[in-house]
Amino acid sequence: MPVFRLSKPMVFPPPEMAESDGLLAVGGDLSSERLLRAYRMGIFPWYGDDSPILWWSPDPRMVFFPAQWKPSRSLERLVKKGAFDVSMDTAFAAVIEACANARGPGRDSTWITPEMMAAYIRLHKEGYAHSVECCIDGQLVGGLYGVSIGGCFFGESMFSNVSNASKVALAVLMKYLAARGFTLVDCQVKNDHLVRLGAQEIPRTEFLARLGEALEMETRRGKWEPDTRVQT
């Protein structure tokens, strides 16, 4: 199938027309309107500094189901210990910058370009993008961020400068989402770290159907706050 080239109109081809690797379209922009339209269709941007904007809809899709997610006993104990001060939406820009700067095995560069950072910071100011922060003595040591529309949280990236910080951030997020009736967390593509935490792959057809149901819920815009200082 051809890869579609986007122009000024806010139109995407159907996700089912993506290439076998998930690539669907190229071009367009990262305006809030276009990003939100893409997420509602099960499409997301992912590209590097030396590339035009690329839009993807992979098959299969990696997800969490908040109502079914159970932390491991070791993670549950770690959260209860309260080793991290956990907050939400207090340092979004710092979290996305830390995710952009994170390096690890096989990751010598980042797809979180300055253009991407600006776009998601704008979505945060508009109440659609959210972060979870883990701090020790006031210093940010781990966290994650993503976009929330309806009953779906579209996870974008996470980082950890101290062992297990991102896992605790995820545990707090999952409890928050489950308590508010969220039905789906999009993790985009397979990641062994997320698999160990309970993420699973589902066919794109199933993902799009579940996404459609999740989007029937009202979108919770504005600042999020964890239910208590330490989540269990």
Explain this structure:
The chain has 232 residues and is α+β, with helices and mostly antiparallel strands. It contains 7 helices and 11 strands. The strands form 2 sheets. It has a 7-stranded mixed sheet, sandwiched between helices. A hairpin with a 2-residue loop joins β8 (139-149) and β9 (152-160). α2 (73-81) packs across α5 and α3 (92-101) runs antiparallel to α4. The chain is globular. The chain starts with a strand and ends in an 18-residue tail after the last helix. The model has no long low-confidence stretch (mean pLDDT 93).
> Any idea what the shape is?
globular
Largest β-sheet summary? 7 strands, mixed
Share of β-strand residues: 15-25%
Secondary-structure element series:
EEHEEEHEHHEEEHEHEH
Structure summary, number of beta strands: 11
Please give a quick description of this structure.
Helix content is 31%, strand content 25%. With 232 residues, it is an alpha+beta fold.
Descriptive keywords:
232 residues, alpha+beta, 7-stranded mixed β-sheet, 7 helices, 11 strands, 31% helix
What are the SSEs and their pairings?
Layout: E1 4-6, E2 23-27, H1 32-40, E3 44-45, E4 54-56, E5 61-64, H2 73-81, E6 85-88, H3 92-101, H4 114-125, E7 129-136, E8 139-149, E9 152-160, H5 165-179, E10 184-188, H6 192-196, E11 200-202, H7 204-214
Parallel strand pairs: 1-2, 9-10
Antiparallel strand pairs: 2-4, 3-4, 5-10, 5-11, 6-7, 7-8, 8-9
Helix pairs in contact: 2-5, 3-4
